Request: fold
Amino acid sequence: MEPRTAEQEHRALVNDLLTSTFNSIMSIEERSIELRLTAGLTMSELHTLVAVGMYDKTPVTVVAQRLSVTAATVTAAVNRLVRKGYVERVPSQEDRRKVLLHLTKSGRKAVRAHDLFHARMIDSILDGMDADEEAALLRSVRRIKEFFDKENEMLRTAPAAHRIDAADVAC
Reply:
């Protein structure tokens, strides 16, 4: 077996850092929903609350777009959130046939509790960075987001064409 090049080592390190960062965020978010204000919510439901918006009256289709899921998926989650008391359905003032989603007081408290973790994360990351470091971080995070946005769009529009099959993976 040949030793890895410096570029291969660098790529492996970037992969390890991205993977472990993603896993840490998911783990911390999962444990954070055990708080009193978010008890009984799944991560998916909590992210649905965030997508509804703190004080907005939001159509299901907009929530679905924000989450990159179908309206049917959002409707199922909203049904549970309404039963749990985190979301209410309100008729649109412009078109009474349309129903909008609005967070209840409990829903807003759950979103605020979730947002505290994100605020602490951002504060910790940016603490002590100079303007050049912040700019470099922003460029890097934008590139990561662009990759995931492209992947998400490809999987949404042509999932079979973008699937990785066993034949594509050499052992």
About this structure: Residues 121 and 131 are 18 Å apart (CA to CA).
